[in-house]
Amino acid sequence: MYIIYQNHRKRNEPAVVFSFIPVLGSAISFGSDPLHFLRSNTNRLGSTFCAVIAGNRTVFVNDPKDWQEILRLPKSAMNFDDIGKEVLVSSFYMDSGTADAVQFEGSKVLHGQFVKYLQGRDSIRSMTSLVRSSFSSQLSQLHLPPSSPVPLFATFSPLVFKATMTSLFGPDHPLVSDSAYTNFSTHDSIFPLLAGGAPSFLFPSSSSCSSNLRSQVLESTGLKGGLMEARRSYFTSNLGLNPRATAAAQAVIVWASSANTIPSAVWSLAMISNDPVSLARVRVELEGVEGEEGCGGADVDEMTYLDSCIHETLRLASSSLTVRKVNPLGYTLRGGTRLRGGDRVAIFPPLRHMDPLTFPNPKEWVGGRFVDDPALKSRVMPFGGGASKCPGRVFAVREVKVFVASILLQFEVTVVGGTLPDFDKTRVGLGINGIEKGKDVMCILRRRGKRE
Ligand code: HEM
User: Fold this and answer.
1) How far apart are CA 344 and CA 322, in angstroms?
2) I need a labelling partner for 46 at 20 to 30 A (CA). Which of 72, 104, 124, 205 fits?
3) SUPFAM superfamilies in the record, alphabetically (predicted)?
4) What does each C-alpha distance from 355 to 63, 216, 247, 316, 359 come to in angstroms?
5) ipTM over cut 0.90
């Protein structure tokens, strides 16, 4: 009965990708090669079709011309909040009542805080300045073997994590530590399984690492007037959450701020360093940066070539999925396609990122792509879109810029072998792909002489 319900097609509904596998449906085919799955089914069934993914009827809208309609629809037609709540419960060990408070009752105020602290000019300036001084002090203490290769991801992921935590909690907070990074990365490594609905008791180590993070997240921030303090005060004073629930809600930001920023930063450094032309162009921009530590503040805004390289990295490494849930009455799209109440609607931006008509030679990393054609930047969607678009996007790009600039100002970086490993494909749908399991980007790093 279940299979018949999921696969049966009513009038005006999108065609359904048939699957005999109950619950899982097409999850494995989609997860193992999403572009092939979406393109081949688009060829067979049309650009909007339905597939059952992990028990959910999911309508994939694959023509970018239809995306704006979906992203602009009001919450009364389809919403992200129900899905957001499921993720809070499945992946952040939050109880259902707390998830309701965070995702529904407090959503307007919390969104306003994101806008104020993650996008406001003064706040971004002071967060960038904290990130810059964190990189500066971490790099000065970094001991590297003089001429043997260094694994880029293993070496720099903890640095990016600690810089991000510094910007949110202040430099002396317990989350600014290697042990907190280990807790974060253990939880992060099984995040795709938790988000896919696997029960958390199967992963006791992740659960204890996540609990370690939650026990640290409430320690005093040392930062007055920042995002984390504003959230904490709202959770306790306005939503009446107890310390345990408040910690769970704060831990979400620890993950959201780091999980995608870390691979974005390290891939950007690797891809720039592996392309002599782009590396030379970025170095010319860096020459214009004043002072030894002058890669934060206003300067990063002027590095347009670096900005292009970072967006090109995000274009290639992105695999996010923007998802909405249709309201119980169902909804009819402009073109007449009928969606059932409870259907999920999904947009996969890499379909456009890898479209040769939009991005010629889409598989190639072209550092100056967006300098040559600035309008193309609006076609890159690594931060999702609509109501759930990443609120940390402006700060995130700045942090990546400061990271790359800090490293290149201090080091000559040479990628050993000249080729980069593949992406980790197990994170489809979550954001920026990490690096293939068991691999790293091996580089020779030589400290540069002091600039005059
Ligand atoms: C390059 C780094 C980053 C990338 C690629 C990225 C990407 C994303 C994506 C794809 C989403 C989901 C969008 C959607 O559903 O349409 C998201 C959501 C989110 N991101 Fe980011 N992100 C990054 C950095 C950050 C940072 C630094 C912060 C905070 C300091 C942050 C905070 C959040 C939050 C709170 C959400 C959930 C928004 C909601 O539920 O409405 N992100 N991010």
Assistant:
1) 10
2) 72
3) Cytochrome P450
4) 11, 44, 42, 11, 6
5) yes
Determine, yes or no, domain membership for 379: yes
Does any domain span residue 122?
yes
Mutate to test the pocket of ligand 1, among 160, 383, 403 (most ligand atoms within 8 A of CB): 383
Triad 51, 55, 60: Cα angle to 5°:
25
pLDDT one-digit tens code per residue, 153-178? 999 999 999 999 999 999 999 999 99
How far apart CA 303 and CA 37 sit, in angstroms, is: 38
- Closest C-alpha among 50, 62, 66 to residue 10: 50
- Is 123 near ligand 1, meaning CB less than 6 Å away? no
Q: What is the pLDDT of residues 347-405, one digit of tens each?
A: 999 999 999 999 999 999 999 999 999 999 999 999 999 988 999 999 999 999 999 99
386: nearest Cα among 8, 51, 75: 75
Amino acid identity of residue 307, one-letter, is D
- For residues 363 and 133, what is the distance between their CA atoms, to the nearest angstrom? 35
Give me the domain span that covers residue 133. Answer: 63-447
Instruction: Determine whether the shortest distance from the Cβ of 256 to ligand 1 is under 6 A.
Output: yes
Both structure tokens of 224 = 């007055």
Which among 220, 145, 214, 207 has a CA at the least distance from the CA of 180?
214
Whether the CB-CB separation of 404 and 306 falls below 8 Å is answered with yes
Contacts of 154 (CB under 8 A, 6+ apart): 440
Q: Output phi, psi for 374, to 5 deg.
A: -60, -30
The string of pLDDT tens digits covering residues 26-38 is: 888 898 899 999 9
Question: Does residue 108 lie in a domain region?
Answer: yes
56 is in an annotated binding site: no
Query: With left for phi above 0 and alpha for psi between -120 and 50, is residue 221 left, alpha or beta?
Result: alpha
Cα–Cα–Cα angle for 326, 54, 321, rounded to 5 degrees = 60
| Pocket flag, ligand 1, residue 167 (CB < 6 Å) | no
Domain assignment present for 5: no
Torsion of CA 261, 266, 270, 273, to 10 degrees: 90
Question: What is the position in ligand 1's atom list of the atom closest to the CA of 261?
Answer: 2
